[in-house]
Design goal:
Layout lengths: L30 H16 L4 H23 L6 H6 L5 H12 L4 H4 L3 H13 L16 H12 L6 H15 L6 H15 L10 H8 L1 H13 L2 H31 L1
């Protein structure tokens, strides 16, 4: 299957004269149903009464749990209590924390200058892992495909935001443009896409926890399936992301309930 992320692939107008190149993704096995289920889960979370007065608190806790889960997917699994106490010095964990904390300041720029934001995400994620001279600099092999990805991020489409977020996440995870901390960067970019495209505008769900709950092995297999470019592989990845989003919504609800109980 040829993925529609080449330059200019995702720029239909609000009333496109030509068919949306992403629309066929919704006809892949299980994708439409999984996207609908993810949207339902997020809507249930966004309707929680705690968010009328404590959305900032939920978002802060979501960022912390998301960072922990993202690091765990890289093999750096630490207790949440240790993370709260500031006792964890692991560079992967610290990078994931910086990414989660920094997403709020990137919302306004992501849909206008994704290359700039992507470089910043890598600086945050890999500051303690890579040569400073290479921070924020994609490898030459990544250039053409990144151009297509940036068109996807800045363009419009009729497909649900959860699918666009999955495509952004999958492209970066499969391409590994930086060579270090690419998984953390990919998950941060996917979450940022969901925020900016209205899936979770308050950033109160925790999709990273969803991926972690589904398992590192399942995550790696799903990324490999996406990278294969086959219809089955792409469909499997999109469904996997939608299911992780559902789990992430449940984690957000758990945070809301904990705040409600005080």
């Amino acid at each position: 299957m040829t993925l529609p992320v080449r330059p200019g692939a995702a720029r239909p107008a609000n009333r496109p004269a030509a068919p949306d190149p992403l629309a066929p993704l919704l006809d892949l096995p299980g994708v439409r149903e999984a996207a609908d289920a993810a949207r339902t889960g997020i809507d249930r979370l966004l309707g929680h009464r705690v968010l009328r007065r404590e959305s900032a608190g939920v978002s802060t806790e979501s960022a912390l749990r998301g960072a922990r889960a993202s690091a765990a997917l890289e093999g750096a699994d630490v207790p949440l209590g240790d993370l709260r106490s500031g006792a964890v010095a692991d560079p992967v964990v610290q990078g994931a924390l910086r990414v989660s904390a920094g997403l709020g300041g990137m919302v306004e720029t992501w849909s206008r200058a994704p290359g700039q934001v992507l470089a910043r995400l890598h600086v945050l994620a890999a500051a303690d892992l890579a040569d400073p001279a290479g921070l924020g600099r994609p490898a030459p092999h990544a250039g053409p495909r990144l151009s297509g990805l940036f068109s996807l991020i800045t363009g419009t489409t009729i497909v649900p935001a959860v699918i666009v977020a999955a495509l952004v996440h999958g492209e970066l995870a499969a391409l590994a443009p930086f060579g270090t901390a690419d998984g953390v960067v990919a998950r941060g970019a996917g979450r940022l896409t969901g925020i900016t495209r209205g899936l979770d505008p308050k950033a109160v769900s925790v999709p990273e926890v969803g991926f972690a709950e589904l398992g590192r092995e399942a995550y790696a297999e799903a990324v490999a399936g996406y990278a294969s470019g086959t219809e089955a592989g792409v469909a499997g990845w999109l469904v996997h992301c939608c299911r992780a989003t559902e789990h992430g919504a449940l984690e957000g609800l758990a945070i809301c309930e904990s705040l409600l109980r005080g």
